[in-house]
Amino acid sequence: MEQTQFESDVKFPEQADFGRKELTLAEVEMPGLLGIRKEYGPGQVLKGAKISGSLHMTIQTGVLIETLQALGAEVRWASCNIFSTQDHAAAAIVKAQTANVFAWKGESLEEYWDCTNRMLTWPDSDGPDILVDDGGDATLLIHEGVKAERAFAKTGELPDPASTDNLEFQQVLRIIRDGLKAGNAQKWTKMSEKLIGVSDETTTGVARLNQMSQKGELLMRCINVNDSVTKQKFDNIYGCKHSLPDGLMRATDVMIAGKEVVVCGYGDVGKGCAFAMQSCGARVVVTEIDPICALQAAMEGFQVKKLSNVVGTADIFVTATGNKDIIMKQDMAQMKNNAIVSNIGHFDNEIDMAGLESYPGIKKVEIKPQVHRFEFPDGHGVIVLAEGRLMNLGCATGHPSFVMSCSFSNQALAQIDLWENRGTNKYEKGKVYKLPKVLDEKVARLHLPALQAELDDLSEDQAKYLDIPKAGPFKHDLYRY
Ligand code: NAD
Ligand code: ADE
């Protein structure tokens, strides 16, 4: 589909050819997305759909974008993290004009939210038909916009960025306020009315959607991509198992073998991280609040400790909880000299960056972009990766293509289903749905041949014995894998 009024904002357009070469290599490693192009491309199942996306603008995302475009969609894209864009990927997409892209590595918070706004703002329409989100920032902007427009209509009151000390939320309020001041009093309301739905990629984004749904505040139809087994049990585990050591090594080149590594949180991401560090020869300690996950970690041979009991001995810390306030400034003050502090969870609030930045007498030295040494007044320091944001995407290139093909096949199928059901009542506004297990199994099936994996066939007799359909689904919905 040709783009109407092509727009873009990327940093290094001259890297487009390099980006294209890497996109071409990635396609071979993404059989799920290529399979979806083959199956749904000829029918142009997304023809007429305007898709906005807020998801790390990497090479792998480039293959997703070009899949959506190959199925007929018009696409606008921004990254969901200030450090995760691969500039050559963004440049290649822009050169091919397969999507309008607004993203570069190292955005300021102001630039990040402006890019999100531009990605959502369509020149010839009230907004996108469908949204791909990762972590919920784009969804948040729309909801806050609607809230502010309702208040403005009632009282004439404008949102005040100074009303919050949250630096990100200040930007959200700035954008909404400026739109209202410019006389655009219905932008977000009209956008939310037009929007068919959103599919969110990650644990934290889905948690936000579920919270809004429970409070009755969710304005959209939503698909939870994270909880597809072929996303959660692959990307979160095997993806992080690959990209955590990649991030640590590219950032610091530190020897991992023999070191004490603390992984905070032993959910799916934490499991991948703990196993990766163990395979590098580290002595791995896990911290948890959930007795089930703590017991799992203990039975895999990891030590399970309170953070306070290892804060002074460990060499490397990785937060993977999706929670806030995990490693605080007073913890970092007690750490060994040059202990590495990093986060692989979605947001930057797992590590108390504000507390560290404002610690009395602290000195911040940039070793290189996304690697900083914070020196305490007594001369000892900690090395912080990606300023407390996702270190695997800030200091390395995130997960590799093969595992992202699993995640993004679910994204593509979710977008197709939302679009194809725009006129039905399959999805209700305000509710969060998962994709059906047959599609999850389809995604897995698309990836087996590349690994020379063979499946046995279930006989009629065996299917009857297990009381499951011969062609699947092979497990009930609550099976845990
Ligand atoms: P999860 O819910 O499976 O695991 C989080 C674990 O942290 C849980 O077991 C929970 O009990 C534990 N936890 C919560 N508070 C804690 C605390 N105070 N101390 C210790 N443990 C605590 O979630 P997940 O799927 O593993 O995702 C974790 C985070 O990583 C989310 O923010 C998610 O969005 C993000 N994520 C990042 C990537 C990436 O590429 N960097 C990929 C997938 C998911
Ligand atoms: N999340 C983790 N790794 C990623 C990648 N390579 N591209 C997009 N999103 C990701």
Features:
single chain; 481 residues; alpha/beta; eight-stranded mixed beta sheet; seven-stranded parallel beta sheet; 14% strand; globular; binds nicotinamide-adenine-dinucleotide; binds adenine
Brief sketch in words of this structure:
With 481 residues, the protein is of the alpha/beta class.
Give a description of the structure.
The protein has 481 residues and is of the alpha/beta class. It is built from 19 helices and 15 strands. It has helices at residues 16-28, 31-40, 59-70, 87-96, 109-120, 137-155, 167-181, 187-194, 203-214, 229-232, 235-252, 268-279, 291-299, 329-333, 353-357, 391-394, 401-420, 437-447, 460-466; strands at 50-54, 74-78, 100-102, 130-133, 197-200, 221-224, 260-264, 283-287, 303-304, 316-319, 339-343, 363-368, 371-375, 381-385, 432-434. Strands 9-8-7-10-11-14-13-12 form an eight-stranded mixed β-sheet, covered by helices on one side. A seven-stranded parallel β-sheet has the order 3-2-1-4-5-6-15, with helices on both faces. Helix 12 links the parallel strand 7 and strand 8 (283-287). Helix 2 (31-40) runs parallel beside helix 3 (59-70), helix 6 (137-155) crosses helix 7 (167-181) and helix 6 crosses helix 8 (187-194). The longest helix is centred in the C-terminal third of the chain and has 20 residues, at 401-420. The chain is globular and about 65 Å long. The model has no long low-confidence stretch (mean pLDDT 98). Bound molecules: nicotinamide-adenine-dinucleotide and adenine (ADE). Residues 56, 58, 60-61, 239, 393, 398-399, 404 line the site of adenine (ADE). Residues 202-204, 235-236, 239-240, 264-270, 287-290, 293, 320-323, 326, 344-346, 390, 392, 398-399 line the site of nicotinamide-adenine-dinucleotide.
